[in-house]
């Protein structure tokens, strides 16, 4: 049986890490995108 | 099958990002009229390096890559010129990269690749081979010189 602590567990660290990865991906992707548009 | 609420969110974010990237690419293609190089049917006429001046602002360059040089190695054009590059190789596969203008092509023996570039700023644009082609690869380069001699 699960303890009450486990039921309320929210993986805040994993969520923050996921969001950070998404933000980094956007940053890199749009960095290269804007650089290439600038060279058109 | 039940999908957890968190999984639904992650799938939603992923699809949203893919949509955003695809939209950005299509937007740039529409707004800036970006284009990809085309492969033409092979014709021996393109294997002789030369520069054709079609009019004051339009040029054709038949660029031939060979170990380890590009011919013609110096291309002089005025500002605002539109250049059609026709590229082929005399031996192995070479690269053809003008980083300042997003040009990225392969020079392949028996194939003609074509792209069009507009040079609207004066300067010296380096063409480099970015596909390893042998011992002299690092010295394989050419230049597009826009608005000569003011650019020098």
Blueprint (SSEs and pairs):
The complex is a heterodimer of chains A (about 40) and B (about 150).
Chain A: H1 4-7, H2 12-38
Chain B: H1 5-32, E1 38-40, E2 50-55, E3 58-66, E4 69-71, E5 74-77, E6 81-89, E7 94-98, E8 103-107, E9 112-119, E10 123-128, E11 141-146
Parallel strand pairs in B: 3-6, 5-11
Antiparallel strand pairs in B: 1-9, 2-3, 3-4, 6-9, 7-8, 10-11
Q: How would you describe this structure to a colleague?
A:
The complex is a heterodimer of chains A (40) and B (152). In chain A, 78% of the residues lie in helices and 0% in strands. Chain A has helices at 4-7, 12-38. The radius of gyration of chain A is 19 Å and the shape is rod-shaped. Chain A starts with a helix and ends with a helix. The mean pLDDT of chain A is 85. With 152 residues, chain B is of the alpha+beta class. Chain B has one helix at residues 5-32; strands at residues 38-40, 50-55, 58-66, 69-71, 74-77, 81-89, 94-98, 103-107, 112-119, 123-128, 141-146. In chain B, strand 3 (58-66) and strand 4 (69-71) form a beta hairpin. Chain B starts with a helix and ends in a 6-residue tail after the last strand. The chains are: A mainly alpha (40), B alpha+beta (152). Chains A and B meet through helix 2 of A and helix 1 of B.
Structural class computed from helices and strand pairing of chain B? alpha+beta
The name of the CATH topology of the largest domain in chain B is Immunoglobulin-like
First-to-last CA distance of chain A: 62 Å
Content of β-strand of chain B: 35-45%
**Number of structural units classed as domains of chain B:** 2
Helix percent of chain B reads: 10-25%
Name the chain pair with the biggest interface and residue counts per chain: A-B, 11 and 12 residues
Unreliable segments of 5+ consecutive residues of chain B: none
Number of DSSP strand runs of chain A? 0
Poorly predicted regions of chain A are none
Q: What is the average of the pLDDT values of chain B?
A: 90
């Amino acid at each position: 049986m699960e303890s009450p602590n486990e039921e309320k567990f929210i993986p805040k660290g994993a969520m923050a890490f996921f969001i950070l990865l998404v933000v980094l991906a956007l940053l890199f992707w749009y960095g290269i995108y804007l650089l290439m548009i600038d060279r058109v | 099958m039940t999908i957890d609420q968190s999984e639904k969110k992650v799938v939603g974010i992923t699809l949203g990002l893919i949509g955003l990237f695809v939209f950005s690419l299509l937007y740039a293609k529409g707004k800036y009229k970006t284009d990809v190089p085309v492969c033409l049917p092979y014709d021996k006429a393109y294997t002789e390096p030369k520069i054709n001046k079609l009019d004051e602002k339009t040029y054709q360059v038949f660029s031939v890559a060979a170990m380890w040089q590009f011919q013609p190695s110096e291309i002089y054009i005025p500002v605002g010129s539109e250049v059609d590059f026709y590229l082929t190789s005399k031996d192995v596969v070479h690269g053809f990269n003008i980083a300042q203008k997003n040009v990225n092509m392969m020079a392949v023996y028996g194939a003609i690749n074509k792209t069009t570039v507009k040079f609207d700023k004066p300067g010296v644009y380096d063409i480099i081979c970015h596909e390893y082609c042998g011992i002299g690869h690092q010295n394989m380069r050419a230049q597009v010189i826009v608005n000569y001699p003011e650019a020098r």
